[in-house]
Write a structure and sequence with these properties.
The complex is a heterodimer of chains A (558) and B (1106).
Chain A (H helix, E strand, L loop, with lengths): L1 H16 L14 E2 L7 H13 L14 H4 L8 E2 L8 H5 L7 H23 L8 H26 L11 H4 L7 H18 L14 H14 L3 H14 L22 E5 L12 H5 L11 E2 L1 H6 L25 H6 E2 L4 E2 L2 E2 L38 E2 L5 H6 L10 E5 H14 L5 H13 L11 H15 L6 H7 L3 H4 L8 E3 L8 E3 L5 E2 L20 H7 L8
Antiparallel strand pairs in A: 2-4, 3-9, 5-8, 6-7, 10-11, 10-12
Chain B lengths: L1 H36 L3 H4 L2 E9 H11 L3 E4 L9 E9 L1 H9 L4 E6 L2 E6 H7 L6 E9 L9 E4 L5 E3 L5 E6 L4 E5 L6 E4 L8 E3 L9 E4 L2 E4 L7 E5 H5 L6 H5 L6 E5 L9 E5 L12 E4 L2 E2 L10 E7 L2 H4 L10 E6 L5 E16 L8 H14 L8 H9 L11 H5 L3 E13 L3 E13 L6 E16 L2 E17 L2 H10 L22 H6 L2 E21 L2 E20 L2 E5 L2 E9 L3 E24 L2 E24 L18 E22 L3 E12 L8 E12 L12 E15 L10 E3 L4 E3 L2 E3 L3 E2 L10 E14 L4 E13 L2 E2 L14 E2 L2 E17 L2 E18 L6 E3 L2 E3 L7 E4 L2 E4 L3 H6 L14 E3 L14 E4 L4 E12 L2 E12 L1 E3 L3 H4 L43 E3 L2 E12 L2 H4 L6 E9 L3 E2 L21 E11 L1
Parallel strand pairs in B: 2-5, 6-12, 18-21
Antiparallel strand pairs in B: 1-3, 4-5, 6-9, 7-8, 7-10, 10-11, 13-14, 15-20, 16-17, 18-19, 20-21, 22-23, 22-60, 23-24, 24-25, 25-26, 26-27, 27-28, 28-31, 29-30, 31-32, 32-33, 33-34, 34-35, 35-36, 36-41, 37-40, 38-39, 41-42, 42-45, 43-44, 45-46, 46-53, 47-48, 48-49, 49-52, 50-51, 53-54, 54-57, 55-56, ...
Classes of the chains: A mainly alpha (558), B mainly beta (1106).
């Protein structure tokens, strides 16, 4: 017993006298201390991969998947509409939003997040000793491109923003000033030039999907168009065309399916992997028709449908091929590739959103139930609001039949060659250099879908109209429309008013409905009026939560 | 390199702990062998002797050598040299001794392993004489009421009994024995047995209540001397509630303790406990719960094991727990064995559970008409024809014209069994209490079940007079199983149109508008299994080392293993008319299998010193405590499991398999101290402190000091009060102290790179790393400073007890996650900023009395706390949905528009300020108030419209006893409360979901004072903006528990050698008085309905004691 007493006393004394600091010194065992990060080559590589991860984003608050979120931008343009009033961006689209919109806030946040991931690479790269200089330069060039990509989003959405090329502390952000957007654009162009120097033309299979030299030049042409530096924009686009790496992919429809992944036209895309929890993309669940269990959270508007020419190359109000009661026949093939309309083949039958439809409009077989508000199937608010659903990226085979509704993985294309051609065309037109290369480029895009070439000898204004039409139909639902209607300053013309929807009527009085052009026809659903204030709505508001902490100046009108 | 060093240091500490652990395990094993050996060794031991002409001394030595017996005798009495012949094979010691001592004047006495040999006459006088004489009697209190449960013991022996329910006892004694009668709350009495056989005793109440003690931090204190605010509950009171969870039993029992029972499926009950308000925003707000000094989860404690619960409410009583005490401390003490014969107790009940409250559904005719009205109001065609409605109402074809009340269909009565068995008792040197509990509770939904198995053994060994060794073994296991898609099923119950089919005759499930089936979710959606086990081993000692000086040591090892296996099944939903046509599928199947395990070691040394000098009483306590906790998490996941029967990770797809894991740990190193001083039991002072070092903070911020002071004045003991007879006790108390809260993430001060930003290139995943949080290296504890003033009073022979407390609690350096600029690219971590204020009062009054055979006690308590976010660190109000954090308002106050009733005309709409969606407004819509008068309703017009913090929490308890009958009842309620309900139950026919009768009182041109806005299909634009129209007065009073018991008279059960037989029936949640519409439970939920309803359990129980 004596010994026990003794040992207790020893413990007491030991305890009282021991240095407890060691005992209380605990660190996470599955995270790397920032103090020792950026010492090995792989640190730089992993940090860069982390910056790539910031390209797409997943806002779990409203459950939009990784790339899907970017596609929501289409619903704040004249191309699309999301009637779910509880969804973020709904009020942005109708012009009644305030500085609290969660999407606007999240987009701002995620872009600066990517920028700072790159900035920390620049701050850390000096500490990495065991790395081959060429490899290091390539990684940093990729990082430079990503930072430029993120900043361009900020500039076209918010205008002047703080241009940070180094990491900051929360205190540094207080009272921060916004930099002139033109200076930022100049810097972005410069950065892309620097990046292009060290980027390869292509990668091996393991690295496919990384930023290439072509991506830097192609993106530069997009930035310079926005910057209205026409000659330089044309040159950047021409540089891509001269690389000889990219071509137009022969199947426009297939380009946005699993078969089209990494095709010859893709310059830069979001690489996605099926079944990977972090990179889930819910494209079909979000935008797909209700018949495929989609939520129709964003559907094409009639004005986009009307934009597609007839196969003779004439607009619908001029073409003899156009029949208002069978309006989707004889149209530019890109219509069918982009938009699901009544009668279009879908899920082994025909899609339909018109109540009591006259089945003679069917082209794809028996009616697929689920998309007509009155067809007796439930889930009303997941049915299309406009009469149409998006078709691009909706892979009914792979994603619906195989139930990948929640983890689809079609890569979302961020830059493709057709855009570069159209960038070239636009830059040349705006520079008033209306030479044959302009016609060649735009006609190449049309020829790929068997559309006739545009007439020759057009004026600058006529060509501009042709180009803008071509961009709209070629690039619909690729989240570039918002950029275009802003830089062309046509949003104030195309956005206001009650958007046009699919209308139907009963021409024969037999109780069966057909689509109609007549404004007395029935709309699918009532729809809200959109407002657009040119003094305000060309820019998004700086998120209120950012203003609260950094006191940054708000955009005019917000 | 650095990492390695760290390991060594840890190992050194670990080794130290391991050594202590080994010692504990040894002591534990020793104790086990002791307990089982106490009664049986003399019967068990077998003796073999073959000795001829041996000296008696050698015979004794031989026995000592082959057994554990040892002999005590005086050589003066025994002739050691006497030669004997003895032949024994496998003999009993008694037989051996009888043979050995045959023909001598010697006799023996076996005391465990000790054999005393002595003179026959000498021994007989000290040997218990069985059956010499039986005395009996009845024990009553000063009013003549019988006192059951009084301990009647022959002084200095273990020979004793307790009185039955009629206060009667029987005891075998010898003349000259001293009998001791004792009962808590009464003065002890002794008498010497003479030639009488009947001894009736009147026990006088212990007016001074000097003996009543309460458990306080690291010790006990006489209740009369407590200067802090401590609420105490006897375990016996809790065991009378047939609920599966101690937290439910505690509800309404202690003032200042707000327990909100959010219901929950068996095994996963969700109860929120707050002591004296909510004082933190991002750190934990739950009290620190200790079971026998070790942190434990309260819901796994067997209510029958509980001796007492103490709630340390103010800073003075809780400060000794320092950094963990900011939210109050709950001390649970479990029963220990007492000296005396072994007692066996069984308590078991069978319960039938039914939902106490379910939402009420309108009839089919009303529902379908309401939907039609909503359609028409939206400018659409009616959905249902008159013929359809008629056929639905008539129920002619339930598949073609269905009408389903999902609640009625899916909720079913469920059974539960609860068995508790305990054995306790022991000798002067070894005492134990062993208990076993098994609970098997089915859920009221398909395939929900929870089982609890609980074992506890508390043992004490008096090794020598001044040294008591104690060991505790505790094991608890919970096995829960539930449908994987249970949450989906609950949502679908309210989210499905009643005009839908649940299941067709051919087995096809009916689907709702979201293509979901609540029934399928329960039946074929897969299963979640959860197995949680906790093992706690404790060993230690109390050593009265010197006069007035005690040294206490306790070591505890806790091992928690929580495993889960979540299986999501795949299923194809087919068209009921065309089973080959798959409408929708649940795919792919997946299995997530994981484990969380924690090993926690706690070691504690305490020294205390007591000294009385005249009327001065001094008590001092000092000690230290170390807690080391290490946890590990591991999880695997695979898709496309081979089959439902073979749901294991190994049967899933190899492709896309995932796993993750990490480990973490924390340490707490503490020094504690307490000094009590009192003068003549009239003036009392107490000081406590704790000095805590925590691993959760950075260097330089690890250590915190938490002091407290309190004082009491016992006025009733002043000489000038000696004439006041009706007043038994009057004590004023005051205290001040500081408490800490360290309940935040483990490593918030470190700046680290996270590994979870992977990307992929060409279908090949690559590692992506990034810093995630901006690290706040200055982070430190929250400090709560509390002032408490209280009064305790007892009147009329202690028949009325009254306690009142007022307190004010400021929580400073509140841990807040204040947003930082998004431009940093990082997420914020907590910083210490802001202050929360809680001011409250609580009162408790109890009245006990006995009139003849009738005993009753009535208790009532009420408490209120006002919560204010006092200082929000200069931050703009933070709005999240319909709640706001704003300086000067309660935390998470409801925030939104104020309504001004419903619009009655288009003219009124046109003249009112423009509302959002103005063009869609129609008469019957909610009119919102233009707070700033700018003619436009926008975000700026939102104001604080209420708070969900309950005010005026009350509890009432009633105990009645008449002869063998007893009745207990417990009411609990909140007198002022608000709740924000939204979602399906407010949407009803507008979205074709579950519709309560409330919608019948909607606004229509003919019903202009309707309590619900006009209907409109597919809209949530106008009326569902967050506004106080949807805020509901949800105060309530609920009969939480009612139990009626009958104990059989002692005269009958004695014949069966039973001590106690009691039958009881009980019911929980029998009724609720509330203004909220029927079926919407005011306590269980807020917001969207997706909860498991409160349970009404009818129970039938039996208690047997022998």
């Amino acid at each position: 017993m004596k010994n026990t007493y003794l040992s207790i006393l020893v413990i007491l004394i030991f305890g009282l006298g021991a240095c407890s600091d060691d005992f209380l010194d605990r660190k996470p065992s599955d995270q790397v201390s920032t103090a020792v990060f950026f010492t090995q080559a792989k640190d730089l590589e992993y940090a860069l991969n982390g910056a790539y991860e910031a390209l797409g984003f997943c806002n779990w608050y409203t459950q939009y998947g990784y790339s899907t979120t970017l596609l929501r931008l289409e619903s704040v343009t004249d191309n699309g509409y999301d009637g779910h009033s509880w969804n973020e961006l709904y009020e942005v689209a109708i012009g009644t939003a305030n500085a609290y919109d969660p999407f606007v806030q999240y987009y701002w946040m995620i872009r600066y997040r990517g920028i700072q991931r790159v900035n920390r690479m620049f701050e850390g790269v000096g500490g990495i000793k065991d790395i081959k200089p060429e490899y290091r330069d390539r990684l940093m060039a990729e990082a430079r491109f990503l930072r430029a990509y993120f900043y361009f989003d900020l500039v076209y959405l918010w205008g002047d923003v703080p241009y940070l090329t180094h990491s900051i502390n929360p205190n540094d952000a207080v009272g921060i000033k916004r930099d002139d957007k033109n200076a930022i654009l100049d810097s972005i162009v410069h950065e892309l030039d620097l990046a292009a120097q060290h980027l390869p033309l292509s990668y091996d299979q393991e690295n496919l999907g990384r930023v290439t030299k072509g991506a830097a030049l192609a993106f530069k042409s997009r930035v310079l168009l926005y910057h209205e530096k026409w000659a330089e924009a044309a040159k950047a686009a021409k540089d891509v065309m001269d690389l000889g790496v990219y071509q137009l992919y022969d199947d426009y429809k297939k380009m946005f399916s699993y078969d089209g992944i990494n095709n010859i036209e893709v310059i830069f895309d979001l690489q996605e992997l099926s079944g990977q929890t972090k990179l889930y993309n819910f494209t079909l669940a979000n935008f797909g028709p209700n018949s495929a269990l989609g939520w129709s959270s964003g559907t094409p508007l009639q004005s986009l449908v009307d934009e597609y020419e007839c196969t003779d190359g004439q607009p619908i109000d001029q073409s003899p091929l156009y029949d208002p009661t069978a309006p989707w026949d004889n149209r530019d093939p890109r219509l069918e590739a982009t938009i699901i309309y009544p009668g279009r083949p879908w899920l082994g039958g025909s899609f339909n959103s018109i109540p009591n439809v006259d089945t003679t409009i069917l082209r794809g077989g028996p009616l697929v139930p689920g998309d007509d508000l009155t067809d007796g199937t439930e889930a009303q608010w997941n049915k299309t609001f406009t009469g149409y659903n998006w078709a691009k990226y909706m892979d009914e085979g792979a994603d619906y039949i195989n139930d990948n509704l929640w983890n689809g993985s079609i890569h979302f294309i961020l830059i493709r060659y057709a855009e570069v051609l159209l960038n070239y065309v636009e830059a040349k037109i705006e520079a008033n250099e209306l030479d044959q290369s302009v016609y060649d480029a735009i006609n190449a895009v049309r020829a790929r879908v068997n559309m006739p070439p545009i007439p020759t000898g057009l004026s600058q204004d006529e060509l501009r109209a042709r180009l803008r039409h071509e961009r709209r139909v070629e690039l619909a639902f690729e989240s570039l429309r918002l950029l275009d209607i802003r830089r062309w300053r046509i949003a104030e013309d195309v956005m206001p008013g009650r958007p046009k929807l699919l209308r139907y009527s009963d021409p024969d009085g037999d109780g069966l409905n057909r689509p109609t052009d007549d404004s007395n026809g029935m709309p699918i659903l009532p729809i809200e009026i959109r407002y657009f204030d040119p003094g305000k709505d060309y820019l998004w508001p700086i998120p209120q939560s950012e203003i609260d902490v950094s006191k940054i100046e708000q955009n005019p009108g917000w | 390199m650095k990492k390695k060093e760290l390991d060594c240091r840890n190992q050194k500490f670990l080794c130290k702990l391991l050594r202590v652990m080994k010692l504990t395990v040894f002591l534990l094993l020793l104790s086990l062998s002791q307990v089982f050996a106490v009664e049986s060794y003399s019967q068990k031991a077998k003796i073999n002797l073959h000795l001829e002409n041996a000296r008696i001394k050698d015979v004794f030595r031989n026995i000592e050598n082959q057994s554990e017996f040892y002999f005590l005798y005086s050589p003066k009495i025994i002739d050691e040299q006497k030669r004997v012949n003895i032949e024994v094979k496998n003999g009993n010691i008694k037989a051996v001794l009888a043979q050995l001592l045959d023909g001598t004047n010697l006799d023996y006495l076996i005391l465990d392993r000790q054999i005393v040999i002595s003179d026959k006459n000498l021994l007989n006088s000290s040997k218990p004489q069985q059956g010499k004489k039986t005395i009996k009697g009845k024990i009553v209190d000063d009013t003549g009421g019988p006192l059951p449960g009084v301990s009647v013991v022959v002084k200095g022996t273990t020979n004793g009994t307790i009185t039955n329910f009629d206060g009667e006892y029987n005891l075998n004694v010898s003349v000259g024995d001293t009998i001791v009668f004792s009962f808590i709350g009464f003065k002890q009495q002794e008498l010497v047995v003479d030639d009488k056989d009947t001894y009736d005793i009147v026990l006088m109440p212990d007016v001074e209540k000097l003996e009543e003690v309460v458990v306080v931090g690291y010790g006990t204190q006489k209740k009369i001397n407590v200067t802090g605010a401590v609420g105490a509950v006897e375990g016996e009171e809790l065991a009378k509630k047939t609920v599966s969870d101690v937290r439910q039993a505690l509800q309404g029992e202690v003032t200042g303790v707000t327990i909100v029972d959010h219901g929950g499926i068996p095994g996963q009950e969700s109860l929120k406990i707050n002591i004296r308000g909510v004082s933190s925003l991002s750190a934990g707000t739950s009290p620190y719960v200790l079971v026998d000094g070790i942190e434990m989860s309260m819901n796994d404690v067997n209510p029958n094991d509980i001796e007492s619960i103490s709630v340390l409410k103010d800073a003075a009583s809780a400060a000794i727990y320092g950094a963990k005490a900011a939210n109050g401390v709950i001390l649970i003490t479990t029963k220990r064995g007492k000296e005396g014969g072994f007692q066996v107790d069984y308590n078991g009940y069978y319960g039938i559970q039914t939902p106490a409250d379910l939402p009420e559904l309108v009839g089919p005719g009303d529902y379908l008409s309401l939907v039609n009205e909503a359609y028409v109001n939206a400018g659409l065609e009616r959905k249902y024809s008159d013929e359809y409605i008629e056929k639905t109402v008539s129920g002619v074809d339930p598949y073609k014209y269905p009408y389903t009340n999902y609640f009625d269909e899916l909720f079913q009565n469920a059974g539960m069994w609860n068995h508790s068995l305990s054995v306790s008792g022991g000798s002067e040197t070894a005492r134990t209490a062993i208990s076993f509990n098994r609970l098997n509770q089915d859920g009221m939904l398909h395939a929900v079940n929870s089982k609890r198995t609980n074992f506890r053994m508390n043992s004490d060994f008096t090794l020598v007079d001044n040294f008591v060794l104690h060991t505790n073994v505790y094991y608890n296991r919970r096995d829960n199983t539930q449908p994987n898609r249970l949450g989906g099923a609950l949502s679908a119950m309210v989210g499905s149109s009643p005009a839908s089919v649940m299941k067709y005759p051919n087995g096809a499930y009916g689907l709702n508008k979201d293509n979901y089936s609540a029934l399928a979710a329960l039946e074929v959606g897969g299963t979640n299994d959860q197995h949680n086990s906790t093992l706690n081993l404790q060993g230690g000692f109390d050593w009265n080392a010197f006069t007035n000086f005690n040294l206490k040591f306790n070591f505890s090892y806790k091992d928690i293993n929580n495993r889960f296996k979540n299986y999501t099944a795949e299923y194809d939903f087919v068209d009921p008319n065309d089973p080959d046509n798959i409408i929708t599928t649940w795919q792919p199947s997946s299995l997530t299998n994981g484990k969380w395990s924690t090993q926690e070691i706690n070691s504690r040394v305490l020294a205390d010193y007591t000294k009385d000098i005249g009327s001065h009483h001094i008590y001092a306590l000092a000690g230290m405590e170390i807690t080391d906790s290490r946890s590990e998490y591991i999880e695997g996941r695979r898709l496309n499991i081979y089959s439902d029967e073979l749901a294991e990770l190994n049967t899933g797809d190899v492709k896309g398999m995932e796993n993750k894991g990490y480990s973490e740990g924390w340490g707490l190193w503490s020094y504690i101290g307490r000094v009590n001083y009192s003068y003549a039991d009239r003036y009392m002072f107490e000081m406590n402190f704790r000095y805590d070092g925590s691993s959760r903070f950075a260097e330089g911020h690890k250590w915190g000091f938490f002091p407290s002071f309190s004082a009491g004045w016992n006025i009733a003991r002043e000489s000038f009060m000696s004439n006041v007879d009706w007043l038994n006790n009057l004590k004023l108390r005051g205290s001040w102290g500081q408490l800490g809260n360290q309940d935040i993430g483990l490593y918030r001060f470190t700046s680290t790179v996270y590994t979870d930003y992977s990307y992929d290139f060409n279908d090949r995943l690559v590692n992506g790393y990034s810093q995630r949080y901006f690290a706040n290296t200055d982070i430190t504890w929250e400090t709560s400073e509390m002032l408490d003033i209280g009064v305790d009073a007892s009147f009329l022979n202690n028949r009325i007890d009254f306690t009142f407390d007022w307190y004010r609690k400021y929580t400073k350096d509140v841990l807040l996650t204040l947003p930082i600029s998004y431009m940093t690219g990082l997420e914020p971590s907590e910083i210490n900023a802001g202050r929360v204020k809680n001011v409250g009062w609580e009162a408790n009054i109890t009245h006990k009395n006995t009139v003849g055979d009738f005993f009753y006690s009535i208790g009532f308590n009420i408490s209120d706390v006002k919560n204010t976010l006092d200082d929000f660190a200069g931050r703009e109000p933070s709005i999240s949905g319909w709640t706001i954090l704003k300086e000067g308002e309660p935390m998470y106050a409801f925030f939104g528009y104020e309504n001004e009733g419903l619009y009655q005309s288009q003219e009124e709409i046109d003249n009112h300020a423009t509302q959002p969606n103005q063009q869609d407004l129609k008469p019957g819509d909610i009119k919102l108030k233009d707070q700033n008068g700018d003619g436009e309703i926008n975000d700026d017009d939102r104001v604080v419209i209420g708070s969900d913090i309950p005010r005026y929490t009350i509890g009432a308890n009633l105990n009645l006893r008449y002869k063998g009958f007893d009745l207990v009842a417990a009411l609990q309620g909140v007198l002022k409360a608000q709740n924000y309900f939204y979602g399906e139950l407010d949407e009803g026919p507008n979205f074709e979901v579950f519709t309560s009768p409330r919608f019948l009182d909607r606004w229509t041109p003919d019903n202009r004072d309707g309590s619900y806005p006009r209907l409109e299909a597919f809209t949530n634009k106008n009326n569902y903006l967050y506004n106080d129209f949807w805020l509901r007065d949800s105060h309530y009073i609920r009969l939480k528990n009612l139990q009626l018991g009958y104990a059989m008279p002692a005269s009958i059960i004695e014949k069966a050698k039973l001590r106690k037989v009691r039958f009881y029936v009980g019911v929980t949640n029998l009724f609720t008085i509330t203004p909220v519409d029927p079926g919407i439970d005011p306590e269980t939920y807020a917001g969207r309905w997706n909860s498991y309803p409160p349970i009404r359990t009818w129970s039938f129980g039996l208690q047997v004691g022998l």
